[in-house]
């Protein structure tokens, strides 16, 4: 389940420190180390799954929960007042750099569209 060499597994198992905003038995939300907006959080399942397309049928609940928790955190931080963006990079061309699936929650500035 946990991968020794995975940075996010290390954070989730507390072998590596991070600023955790929310945590439950299924996932954690922590602040991105290199923020691209005033608020930049990562919603990360505790189960190691490399990428979005690797979610299996039995992960339906987890996939849904990623979004649900992102919305809950966004509301708690009042990000819904001005808006926020959820981003999930898949594969090299998207810019995915950490191969442990995660949802980005970006807010706090006017975000460009289309993304670069
Ligand atoms: P992606 O490029 O979609 O794979 O996103 C990976 C994100 O993880 C980037 O925004 C990085 O800044 C972030 N990141 C990498 N290492 C850490 C870390 N130790 N703690 C928090 N965020 C990290
Ligand atoms: Zn991992």
CATH third-level topology: HIT family, subunit A
Distance between the termini: 34 Å
The H-level CATH homologous superfamily, spelled out, is HIT-like
CATH architecture: 2-Layer Sandwich
Q: Say which molecules are bound, naming each kind only once.
A: adenosine monophosphate, zinc ion
Count of alpha/pi helices = 2
Overall mean pLDDT score?
97
**Overall CATH class:** Alpha Beta
Helix content: 10-25%
Principal-axes shape call:
globular
Low-confidence stretches: none
Order of helices and strands: HEEEHEE
Strand content: 15-25%
Q: Tell me the domain tally.
A: 1
DSSP summary, beta strand count: 5
Radius of gyration: 14 Å
Strand arrangement in the largest pleated sheet:
1-2-3-5-4
Based on helices, strands and strand pairing, what is the structural class?
A: alpha+beta
Biggest β-sheet strands, sense, barrel: 5 strands, antiparallel
Please give a structural write-up.
With about 120 residues, the protein is an alpha+beta fold. It has one domain: 2-Layer Sandwich (HIT family, subunit A). The chain is built from 2 helices and 5 strands; from the N terminus they run αβββαββ. A 5-stranded antiparallel sheet has the order 1-2-3-5-4, covered by helices on one side. The longest helix is centred in the middle third of the chain and has 17 residues, at about 60-75. The radius of gyration is 14 Å and the shape is globular. It starts with 6 loop residues before the first helix and ends in a 9-residue tail after the last strand. The model has no long low-confidence stretch (mean pLDDT about 95).
